[in-house]
């Protein structure tokens, strides 16, 4: 086993998996399904989400998704997402992976690259600098991109939300959501070894099988 595969005390390092995609793609359902399946194989799994995942980051989640930070402008919003991520990585993700656990995170750096970068016009230089300080060496071993046409995803998200108002990003127009979809697909094309693209317009069972196939194919379970 290469040195980088080992935790500091010689145990095997865990794995870090992320789910990405637009609104209503079914990420949270698939995170839970994959976690259950891995646990059946005796893997210790931690599920988490962004923005959030640690007490400090959950406080920032509220600021970001309520739209309270929108008036600060896209650069400042990106900085707040990165601040939340830095805390989440330091307090939860890095220690869990070092302890040999598998961490599955609902959204991570690719959401910032797309929402703040592609459709938020934050310059690539700032996105890269924020990634460097917030994430360091903690890059996903595998990113599952749940791909769905924007209209279909938004329909699902609004059905799930019911009478509650759409959050800061969900409220954006369909064109923006389509550009986000294209943005995610472009990231997947640029890093084919890290990404697996899953057709998320299929039913839940079929998507769960496709996710499981990708995980088994790419990582040793
Ligand atoms: P959430 O309710 O978790 O949405 P979803 O169920 O679609 O994942 O809200 C997260 C929102 O924050 C979502 O609209 C995407 C956005 N977001 C960013 O803009 N940048 C980021 O770095 C992250 C992690 C999320």
Question: Can you describe what's shown?
Answer:
With 221 residues, this protein is an alpha/beta fold. The chain has one domain: 3-Layer(aba) Sandwich (Rossmann fold). The chain is 52% helix and 13% strand. It is built from eight helices and five strands. It has helices spanning 27-40, 55-65, 74-98, 109-118, 124-135, 150-161, 174-190, 204-218, and strands spanning 15-21, 45-49, 102-106, 142-147, 195-199. A five-stranded parallel sheet has the order 2-3-1-4-5, with helices on both faces. It is globular. The mean pLDDT is 95. The structure holds thymidine-5'-diphosphate. The site of thymidine-5'-diphosphate has 16 residues, from α4.
| CATH architectural group | 3-Layer(aba) Sandwich
Radius of gyration: 17 Å
Distance between the termini: 15 Å
User: How does the helix and strand content classify structurally?
Assistant: alpha/beta
Q: From N to C, what is the helix and strand string?
A: EHEHHEHHEHHEH
The amount of helix comes to 40-55%
Assembly type = single chain
Shape: globular
- Please tell me the overall pLDDT: 95
Question: What is the count of DSSP helices, taking H or I runs of 4+ residues?
Answer: 8
